[in-house]
Amino acid sequence: MQNRYFIISAVVALLFVGAVVGYAIPEEKQEVPARIILDNTGGRVVFSHRTHADDYGADCADCHHDGLEGREYLPCGACHPAEFDETFRREHPKAFPDKEACLRCHDEVPTGPLPEDERPDIESIPTRGEAFHSLCMGCHEENGGPYGEDACYQCHAR
Ligand code: HEC
Ligand code: HEC
Ligand code: HEC
Ligand code: HEC
Ligand code: HEC
Question: Which residues are recorded as binding heme c 1 (predicted)?
């Protein structure tokens, strides 16, 4: 009898410790947002993020071509700014948790200002508006969903 109480107490204690540790260690995976609000000059877009992944059969990697498999899901705007201006040049290195991301655009990890001829070719990197329109509408044209000249307000709020 004694022995059984001991075992039960030990199990309860273990469960308690497990719960406390589980609570204290931050969740490793980023939370997958259900809905994302994208504010922009064309009018706010409410994007049904989880529905796209769960019900419309899109893979995470169809849209997140960067930051997969154990790495963070980087916000698209870190690499696709509204324009490649002075603000982008100054701020963008702070947007990445690891140096590996630099190599998406740079030949090697830059350590300071770059001469003109070592800067990445911005012609080959779509801006935020271009990246979103080609991603969203490219898939919609093939698989359903709003696209084309008349569809603006199916995505954008007036
Ligand atoms: C149809 C395209 C699409 C699919 C499919 C998709 N996502 Fe996303 N996801 C986005 C967009 C767009 C954003 C907003 C990024 C931004 O605000 O710059 C986003 C944001 C996120 C964020 C927040 C990142 C941040 O801080 O901005 C996480 C985490 C994420 N997605 C995870 C996932 C996972 C995991 C899957 C697969 C189960 C998935 N996504 C599928 C398009 C998609
Ligand atoms: C770490 C930087 C980085 C992040 C984060 C990133 N991109 Fe890109 N993206 C690029 C680069 C660089 C290109 C240019 C072509 C290439 O290298 O693949 C590109 C190209 C694209 C293209 C052109 C067609 C293609 O697929 O190659 C689209 C569309 C696109 N990105 C959408 C997105 C969206 C949407 C997100 C967020 C869910 C995102 N990108 C996040 C760097 C990034
Ligand atoms: C999405 C592509 C992209 C990624 C990812 C990226 N860069 Fe850049 N970077 C650029 C572009 C484009 C320029 C040049 C901008 C211009 O021509 O105005 C640049 C310029 C620079 C410069 C030169 C600024 C100047 O004033 O001469 C530095 C330094 C730099 N990047 C550091 C980094 C570091 C560090 C990382 C990773 C932590 C990184 N970049 C990731 C695209 C990127
Ligand atoms: C990989 C394919 C794919 C991509 C990428 C994609 N969509 Fe969709 N989307 C769909 C499909 C499939 C539907 C459903 C069509 C139907 O059933 O009528 C849809 C429907 C929609 C709808 C109408 C229904 C709803 O859920 O709100 C909106 C708005 C929408 N998408 C916005 C976006 C935006 C914004 C993006 C880019 C960030 C995007 N989609 C990227 C496949 C995609
Ligand atoms: C499938 C949904 C969808 C459709 C259809 C659509 N857009 Fe967009 N649009 C977006 C998304 C998503 C963004 C990027 C939001 C962000 O930057 O956060 C965007 C961005 C924009 C921007 C801002 C560009 C920038 O670089 O800041 C303008 C302007 C715009 N759209 C106009 C239009 C017009 C005009 C049409 C119709 C011809 C249209 N859009 C159709 C989803 C859509």
Answer: 49, 52, 60, 63-65, 76, 79, 102, 105-106
Q: State the Cα–Cα distance between residues 22 and 34, nearest whole angstrom.
A: 24
Taking only the tens place, the pLDDT of each residue in 77-94 is 999 999 999 999 999 999
Domains along the chain with CATH numbers: 36-155 (3.90.10)
3-class DSSP state for residue 25? coil
Closest residue CA from atom 31 of ligand 4: 145
Atom from ligand 4 closest to the CA of residue 51: 26
Beta carbon of 152 within 6 Å of any ligand 5 atom: yes
Q: What is the token pair recorded at 94?
A: 């702070």
* Ligand 2 contacts CB of residue 65 (under 6 A): yes
Determine the residue type at 36.
I
- CA 133–ligand 5 middle distance (angstroms): 6
